[in-house]
UniProtKB/TrEMBL annotation:
GO terms for molecular function: CoA-ligase activity. The keyword Transmembrane applies. Residues 37-418 form the AMP-dependent synthetase/ligase domain. It comes from Pholiota conissans. This is Amp dependent CoA ligase. Residues 467-555 form the AMP-binding enzyme C-terminal domain.
Length: 584
């Protein structure tokens, strides 16, 4: 059997602790010691720092209030935990991590949500998670209320992340309430092994097909992945001179914490390593550059669209980035040319890529410790504890250097898709996770070749073609549809729709000619943009086709249309620096 794995052994990973107990209350062997003057968080706008003591104080105060006012408790009756919390934040505010930990202190489950979701998209997530409490930024309240109302969730289930004129309670007031009252909850105590089967997060992913599904991630998974990354980066080696992260280093916290990359790698690993997170509420590239310079940031955790901006935006010219010591990109592959340009831009930084999935919670491979520049095309080396196989289409195992689907296992793997045994059986097989990515492994380095699965990656976010196709079929102008991803310099790829026009659409086109055809296409595109989040819009356009190619069983032959999309004359790619207000 051909298996690949890191030769570095892992230390003991505690399986009787919750995430807050591990990060806020315990000192683990090999964990860097954080000096008392090194804060957890710094607010970008005001410069206000939040120390470990304050974060601890606020998390436990909020937990007491959640217990008293919302009766959040560990669950039973066939579920590790009964109640769930929808964390919806328009801004990545400092109250967000506190709210996450407060819920988990009580044994609750957090299901992070994209604040830009439409009410329909949010309703889908709420209905699966069956949330009891919604923690929301005031700016997202109207959307959250619409989604909650459709799910039968009452208005008294809301808690605001920030204060506003609303009569609804907010986190600051809840923290004060929690500390002014006696302790109302019984601290969660896990038995040995229980952290492996106790859900901490329901993070949504499209998996290999279909609508987003809730990935059940245990407390143990997150703790394990953080320890794996720490060992990979040799943070526990007192003789290693070139540590990638030291207490007092400052990481830019601009990637959203609702995404698994920001949630585990930044919000938890950086803090474990002794670093400080500069909380950036909203991404604006020129402001982001100013913050990097003003705070002398040392660590950049990026996605490819941000790397493109660094390499092409005129506002970068003339800036001094000599204080940057580490720059890594994830969520989607980064081209070799961009890596070379980043190396010139950040002359003192280690530069490379990482790879992981929500289903692997999170990191599978990462830039090797002490490496100045990652191998071009490589997503890094397998981290300690991860075992990998490369499976050929005929089911046999590929040797080193041969392509196939990447299948991985390790201590951080998720538990499966929540309340979805059929989807779980497709992706989680005997403890192994089918990634759906075609790779080659050489010298334990992972090279991503293509996505076998149908999911697109747009600016690092997953987009399921089936979701958009189902939505398109609801429009009277659409008889059949297939959505594929097409390359885009800024977004990595963008959705493009092949559409078989309906009889009514054809009639309109026949009567009106080219202008009518363009109008019909615009109407179809608007049907998507009116109901879906921005990164799901058909920015690759609509192309009319006589028939969608399918196999005898009716499955869309998507690869044929992907190849055909390469020959279609399309609109110009997104201009990478036209939007300094671009949202990630």
């Amino acid at each position: 059997m051909t298996e690949f794995h890191s030769p570095v052994p892992l230390p003991h990973i505690p399986d009787d602790l919750t995430i807050p107990q591990f990060f806020l209350r315990t000192e683990s062997p090999g964990r860097p010691i954080r000096p008392r003057n090194v804060p957890f968080f710094i607010d970008d706008a005001s410069g206000r720092a939040v120390t470990y003591e304050e974060a601890h104080h606020r998390a436990y105060g909020l937990a007491n209030a959640l217990s008293m006012e919302w009766n959040i408790r560990p669950g039973d009756v066939g579920m590790p935990l009964q109640y769930h919390v929808m964390s919806l934040s328009l801004k990545v505010a400092m109250n967000y991590p506190v709210a996450v930990w407060a819920v988990q202190i009580l044994g609750g489950i957090v299901t992070p949500a994209n604040p830009s979701f439409t009410a329909d998209e949010l309703q889908h997530q709420l209905s699966i998670a069956r949330a009891k409490l919604i923690i929301v930024h005031p700016a997202g309240l109207d959307t959250a209320r619409k989604a909650a109302s459709a799910c039968g969730i009452p208005d008294n289930a809301f808690l605001l992340l920030d204060e506003n004129k609303s009569s609804l309670p907010n986190v600051n007031g809840a923290v004060a309430l929690g500390w002014n009252k006696g302790e109302n909850y019984e601290a969660v105590r896990l038995q040995p092994g229980e952290a492996r089967r106790t859900i901490a997060f329901l993070s949504f992913s499209s998996g290999t097909t279909g609508k987003p599904k809730a990935v059940a991630i245990s407390h143990y998974s997150v703790i394990a992945n953080v320890i794996q990354m720490a060992v990979h980066n040799r943070l526990d080696d007192p003789d290693w001179p070139d540590k990638s992260t030291l207490p007092g280093d400052l990481a830019m916290g601009v990637l959203p914490f609702f995404h698994i990359y920001g949630l585990v790698v930044i919000m938890h690993y950086v803090l474990y390593a002794g670093g400080t997170i500069l909380i950036v509420p909203k991404f604006n590239f020129t402001d982001f550059l100013d913050s990097i310079t003003r705070y002398k940031a040392t660590h950049l955790y990026l996605v490819p669209p941000m790397c493109v901006l660094f390499c092409k935006h005129p506002a970068v010219k003339g800036r001094d980035f000599s204080h940057i010591k580490f720059c890594t990109s994830g969520a989607a592959p980064l081209g070799g040319d961009l890596m070379v340009q980043l190396g010139k831009l950040f002359p003192n930084a280690a530069i490379g890529q990482g790879y992981g999935l929500t289903e692997t919670a999170t990191t599978v491979s990462y830039l090797p410790a002490g490496c100045k520049m990652g191998t071009v095309g490589s997503s890094g080396k397998l981290i300690p504890g991860v075992s990998a196989k490369v499976v050929k289409p005929d089911g046999s195992l590929a040797a080193e250097g041969e392509p196939g689907e990447l299948v991985v296992t390790g201590p951080s793997m998720a538990m499966g898709y929540y309340d979805n045994p059929a989807a779980t059986a497709e992706t989680f097989v005997d403890g192994w996770v089918r990634t759906g990515d075609e790779v080659v492994i050489k010298n334990n380095e992972v090279y991503i070749l293509d996505r076998i699965k149908e999911i697109m990656k747009v600016r690092g976010f997953q987009v399921a073609p089936a979701e958009l196709e189902a939505h398109l079929l609801a429009h009277p102008y659409v008889s059949d549809a297939c959505v594929v991803g097409i390359p885009d310099e800024y977004s990595g790829e963008v959705p493009m729709a092949f559409v078989v026009p309906s009889a009514s659409a054809l009639s309109r086109i026949t009567k009106g000619g080219a202008s009518a055809e363009e109008h019909v296409k615009q109407v179809i595109e608007k049907h998507v943009s009116d109901h879906k989040i921005n990164y799901k819009w058909l920015k690759g356009g609509v192309e009319f086709i006589d028939v969608i190619p399918k196999n005898p069983s009716g499955k869309i032959l998507r690869r044929i249309l992907r190849d055909q999309a390469k020959t279609v004359k399309r609109r110009a790619p997104e201009i990478v620096y036209r939007q300094t207000q671009a949202k990630l």
